[in-house]
Design brief:
By secondary structure, the protein is of the alpha/beta class. The chain has helices at 13-24, 35-41, 61-68, 85-90, 104-116; strands spanning 4-8, 28-32, 49-53, 78-82, 97-98. It starts with a strand and ends with a helix. The chain is built from 5 helices and 5 strands. It is globular. It has a single domain (4-109), classed as Response regulator (Rossmann fold), CATH 3.40.50.2300.
Length: 117
């Protein structure tokens, strides 16, 4: 069965390119433009992994992760990405990737490791 990945990131070119790379790697991909939209999507869609940016409008990734931890979906594997280490530190997120320094192939490898290891 095809694994379903949710990308939570405000609509930018990087989000589109990542979604296409994951689709070409055999994954089903859904996209939410902010944490609020992602939380609304989760009860209606079986998601196997969430990739979330920290800096977003309406509800940022840090607030999304806090709210996610209080839902039935709190055990869903996540990959946090940002270009701003300060934002990750604000939410005490220690495990994140820097978008500008991480290749698409590396992200696909991380996805595979989270899903299959």
């Amino acid at each position: 069965m095809q694994k379903h990945i949710l990308i939570v990131d405000d609509g930018n070119l990087g989000q589109i390119v990542l979604a296409e790379k994951l689709r070409h790697s055999g994954y089903l991909v859904s996209v939410a433009g902010n944490g609020k939209d992602a939380l609304e999507l989760l009860p209606t869609t079986m998601i196997d992994l969430i990739i979330v940016d920290i800096i977003m409008p309406i509800m940022d990734g840090g607030e999304f992760l806090i709210k996610l931890s209080n839902t039935d979906f709190s055990n869903t594997p996540t990959i946090v990405m940002t270009n701003f280490a300060e934002a990750a530190e604000l939410y005490e997120i220690r495990d994140y990737i820097t978008k500008m320094d991480t290749s698409l192939d590396s992200i696909v490898t991380m996805v595979e490791n989270k899903l299959f290891n």
